Amino acid sequence: MNAAGRSTGDAYGHALISIAASDERIVALEGGDAAWSSPFSESYPERCFNAGGAEQNLILTAAGLALGGDNVFVSSYAAFLTGKGYDQIRTAVAIPSLPVRIAGLGAGLTAGEEGACHQTLEDIALMRVFPGMTVLVPADYTAAFALLKNVAGVQKPVYIRLGAAATPDVYEEGDEAFFPGGGRVLREGTGVTLCCCGIMVHEALRAADVLARQNISAEVIDCYSVSPLPVQAILDSVHRTGCCVTAEEHFASGGLGEAVASLTGANYPVPVKMVAVFDKFGQSGSPPELKEYYGLTASQIVSAAMQAWIMRRR
Amino acid sequence: MLREPSFLAEKASEIRRDVVRMIGLARSGRLASSLSIVDILAWLYWDVLSVDPADPWFESRDRFVLSKGRGAPALYATLANRKFFERDELWSYRRLGAMLQGYPQALRIPGVDAPGGGSFGMGLGIANGLAIALRRGRSPCRVFCLAGEEELQEGAFWEAVIAASRFCLDSICLVIDRYRTKEEAGIPSASDEAFCEKIRSFGWTAEACDGHDFSSLGGALRLLGQGAGRPKCLLARTRLGKGVSFLEGDSSGESEVLDRERVDKALRELEKEEDPL
After folding, report:
1. Is B275 helix (H, G, I), strand (E, B) or coil?
2. Sheet bearing A225-227, strands edge to edge
3. Does A63 lie at the interface with B, CB-CB under 8 angstroms?
């Protein structure tokens, strides 16, 4: 664990501040209560707008700002931004393909004690189905920081999923090689492909260590770009390994797992086992307890990998 | 540049006839909802908005956001008449591959600044964003938004009403197409004055006017001009199907598609209407 204990959500304000000086069209719209206001709002109060918890209007205003030529980031609680704002994202952002970067804060199960209402396990699914929508799920602060910086120039809608719980560092500070459509092969292997995103990247790396001791060499791919997927990296890998496990802090329905299964199914069918939340809403609890309870752990990845490996395509 | 009322009336009549023709040809589209806003659009596009058909995207143009997407045919016919694009485009309205889709697509049609509805209650929020962006760019231009009364049932509409006031967006002018009769209204309040009071209570200025009378529209806008720092709302009383007697005021026939015979009948009526002026 890193000492700083930073979450991907912490990167939001920091990344905006780092690009705002060189691009005066960067503006941020913030929703929700004061707890979600970013340091950007302190550094650039005249370029930050908060209209309270009205997520529908938040998205519409973001669309208007984009139409007016501003470089817009809009953030609020992921559950409400993608839930309440869904029709607005669809009609005013996705269909006209406007360059609005939507940051879902406090996303995933690890929203923690707030419970099921706040824990969004379907946001990836909701955003991934839109044609032309980029969906990004960074693993740590560094990846989130770089992605936020790099999407500022993307002239298309982007959804970036950010968590509130501190995550262990996966990447070296200052690493900036993260782009829509990209993925990172964090460990090379020939026995099983582990496709993961978000907080599950660290778990997958731990799982790979355990699998190595059992003589299964796991290839770990951080699929931080869930849409578009890092297609070539995934297909190259399953050609070598013949089996795949996916891991994500999301419902099994509609997330990274189904995206990978549909990619491999159409191109090079291999068994795909999913580590995800199956058919259950979240509940109150501390982030570590919730991860354990819902099986979002390295040991679940290990057992899924064993099953996939036995069924592997030879 | 103020035009003679007779000039605007003639433009409105031409636009109405094109609206009937294009919906008749497409055999799809909302005729009554389109006819109710034609006079407002003619007034805006010839009397109020600073726009340039020869340079549709010039930066300091006034922006127009059609929230009432159902009225898209009226906007299309207005833009064509104002020479933003070839009138022939009207005849492929709602066809596969056409520029003029069921609801306006932002920045793909010369003169269309924002996505045009389809889903209720979205225009004002978008107009707010445009107004903030333009103010940030120190642009003096205004943002007009035309919403249908039916959209006032949407929560997002009221979120945007609050936000416009909170951000002091005095470049915003919201025009509401108020076509319901007092008996039908119910939401949010029956009388025009009560409605204006409601909007004012959110920090706006608001005036009611006759949406088919150019001098009434102009007069109300001038009155609103005095409320600096506040967003403006024009509550424009209209009639559904205005100009075609067998459609007028009848909300039940809203989505009805006219057969050939009724299209001809409507056109004959609109042609007759032109003469006395």
Report:
1. coil
2. A48-50, A26-30, A71-77, A100-105, A158-161, A134-136, A225-227
3. yes
By CB atoms closer than 10 A (0-12, 13-18, 19+), residue B39 is buried
Q: Which two tokens stand for residue A202?
A: 């660290």
Per the listing, tokens 């932002």 go with: B106
A74 part of contact set with chain B, CB < 8 Å: no
pLDDT digits (tens, 9 = 90+) for B168-224: 999 999 999 998 865 555 555 568 999 999 999 999 999 999 999 999 999 999 999
What whole-number distance in Å separates Cα of residue B128 and Cα of residue B171?
9
Answer whether B106 sits within 8 Å of A96, measured CB to CB. Answer: yes
Q: Which CATH class is domain A184-310?
A: alpha beta
CATH for the stretch A10-161: 3.40.50.970
Quote the pLDDT of residue A228: 98
Which chain B residue has its CA at the smallest distance from A27's CA? B133
**Under a CB-based contact definition with an 8 Å cutoff, are residues A47 and B149 in contact?**
no
| Structure token pair of residue B80 | 């064509």
Q: B196 is written with which tokens? A: 């204006």
User: How many residues are listed for chain B in this entry?
Assistant: 277
| CA atoms of A54 and A31, how far apart (whole Å) | 7
Partners of B92 in the β-ladder: none
User: Could you tell me which of A124, A154, A88 has the C-alpha nearest to residue A252?
Assistant: A124
Which pLDDT belongs to residue A1?
41
Domain boundaries, chain A: 10-161, 184-310
pLDDT category of residue A112 using cuts at 50, 70 and 90: confident
Residue-wise burial string across A131-163, b where 16 or more C-beta atoms lie within 10 A, e elsewhere: eebbbbbbbbbbbbbbbbbbbbeeebbbbbbbb
Residue type, B233: C
Q: Which of A54, A78, A73 is nearest to A63 (CA)?
A: A73
Catalytic residue among A30, A55, A219, A249: A55
Q: Assess whether A113 carries a catalytic annotation.
A: no
Which tokens in the block code for residue B43? Answer: 């007034």
| Global ipTM | 0.92
Q: Mean pLDDT, to the nearest integer, of A286-306?
A: 96
Does residue B227 sit at the A interface (CB-CB below 8 Å)?
no
In CATH, the architecture of B5-274 is 3-Layer(aba) Sandwich (3.40)
Q: Are B15 and B73 in contact (CB under 8 A)?
A: no
A49-104: per-residue pLDDT in tens? 987 889 999 999 999 999 999 999 999 999 999 999 999 999 999 999 999 999 99
Q: What tokens does B88 get?
A: 């022939």
DSSP state of B128: H
